[in-house]
Every structure is written in structure tokens, then in C-alpha cells.
Amino acid sequence: MAWWVWKDNGNFAQILLSPKANEPLGHRRYWPIYEAAARYDIPLGVHVGGVSGRPSSAAGHSSFYIEEHHSQVQAMQALAASFVIEGVLERFPKLKVIFIESGIAWVPAVAWRLDSLWNQFRNEVPHLRRPPSEYIREHFWFTTQPADEPEKPEHLRQVFDWIGWDKILFASDYPHWDYDDPHYAIKCGLNKVERSMVFRDNARRAFGSRI
Amino acid sequence: MVKHVVAGSSEIGDGQQKRVSVAGRDICVFNVKGDFFALLDRCPHEGASLSYGFRIGLVTSSSPGCFEYSRESEMVKCPWHGWEFDIKTGQSWCAPTRVKVRPYPVNVESGNELVKGPYVAESFPVSVEGQYIVIDL
After folding, report:
1. Residue range B25-52: mean pLDDT, rounded
2. ipTM of this model?
3. Domains, chain B, ordered by start
4. Inter-chain contacts counted by CB atoms under 8 A, chains A and B
């Protein structure tokens, strides 16, 4: 199969993927995409949603819209695990992956769990030379929308601290109804440096010369 | 407290609402079954204009699978993220003490009484025959 990438076309800033493909996105059959992305320094953007025909939740189909909305996060969590565990990030050290509209507060908990499991199952996956959390921190960006709203806003700040302030990308999801207003959505408040990073500088680094 | 005349009483019909500007604030006036209520026109969640919100009743349930509908048009649903607010109190349904919109006292007064003063009508002529929606600020 021949792949070509419109690497020289200035209209493309990323390669957009759906988290609900035929197989988890870390699988080998998708590696030619990642090879091209890494070679030409184009980030992958994985946007929540998609219609694989399978339920969003591993437990089966949702009954309510609120439930379905929440279930989308599961696919993103599975995606994060798959990219790390299959060794995609080990094989393509320059690959950048942007998680779009995936929610953000689950990231540290998933990373802690994967790290703990890596300690136990390392010799099943010897291609993972480092703890999963290191791959996550190095290769993944996360958008702020939908902004998580813990009762204590400082808890959100702790999540950002863990992920790394250089890996947070503001997103509005305009014109969707669950859009985030740039002035009010991030309730933990940002200082000047954080604001510059989240609203501009991190995007420049993630997308490089493509924006 | 200063009386601000914001509209003629027949301008906002039952079930309707209108945004008005009072002393630099955007305030939404609601007509709920002939009574008027006023709330600051800014959703406490992320600042949306509640005057663009949906007038709904209250959906409650005695058990899963049962739906009861009451208080028709007494709630406003924020157009952005859907928070439900009780128009009469400004309290959100889901977090009534933590998330609420500021209510303002509003009455209907006759032009006859109003012209005795004092009142403010920033862009509004008051005549003695009329009935007006007045917000106390």
C-alpha cells in the first residue's frame, strides 16, 4: 500500500484520527501512519467520538445522552494505553499525539496505574524501556475542553502540574453547545506565564511550523 | 434604591423574557404567568446570557423510568451548558446554594405613581396612563 502525506501542503496542521477504529490505534497495521507523521513532524490529533459500530463503553451501549457523553472518555483512555503499551512511542520517538476533547483529569490516575502494572508485567512488554508515565508526559498533549470542574479548583491545578504545563492546549470546542469560554472555563485561574503557554506557546510547539 | 423603568408592562408576555440594561448591568426580566422576575443576565457557570435561555418546566422523578413535569415555564435553561435556574429565586436546580444568579426586585407600577418621582428611565418615556416594569437598584 502506498502512503503519501501532503506534508508540503500548508493547509494541514495535523493528522486527525478517531479513537474508535477497527482496532486499538496502537496496533501495527496503523504504524505506517505514525511513521509518516513522525518523519514529517506532523502531530496526530485524536478527536473524541467516531462510529466504529461498537458501543462507546466496554460494558455495552448507553441508555442516555449524558451516559454516552461520558463513555467517550473510555475510548481515549484505551487509546492512551494502546499507544504506550504497543511501543508506538518507543518505535517513533518523535511522534506527537494530541488528545482532543478527551477530558483531562483522568490522565494522572491512568498513568499511575500503568506505571504500577509495568513494574509487575515488564517482562511481557520488554520493548517498553521506561515507565508508561514518561512516554505520556513526553509525547501527549491534552486539550482543556471539556474543562473538568472539581469542587476545589486547586485540584485541577494539580492535574495540570502532573501532566506538565507545557502539554496543555486551550480548546473551546466552539460552536458546540459544550463550548468552553476562554475567560471563565478554567476555574483554577492561570498566572501570566501559564496563560501564555496554554493559550499560545504550547500550540506553537505542538504544531511547529505548521501553524 | 433607585427605581429604573425598563419596559412597558405589556412588552414582555407570559412565558417571555427580555434583556434590559440597568445602570450598566445586563438584567433579564422574565414574565412568569403574569408576574415579573429579574435576574442578572449572566450565567454564573461561564457567563452566558440567560435571556437567550430556554423556558422550561421542572422535570422530576419518583423513580427511574418515571417522569413528572411541573412548574411550566418557571425555569430557564442556560443556552450554553444547560444549567437549570429557578427564575423566581435565581438558584440553580443542581447546586442551589453554591451556584445562583443574583435576583433583582421588580414590580409593575403605574405611570401615574411613577411621575411623582424619583425614577430613572434611561431610554424610556413614561406617561401617566401607562403601566411599567420597574427594577429597584
Report:
1. 96
2. 0.81
3. 3-136 (2.102.10.10)
4. 15
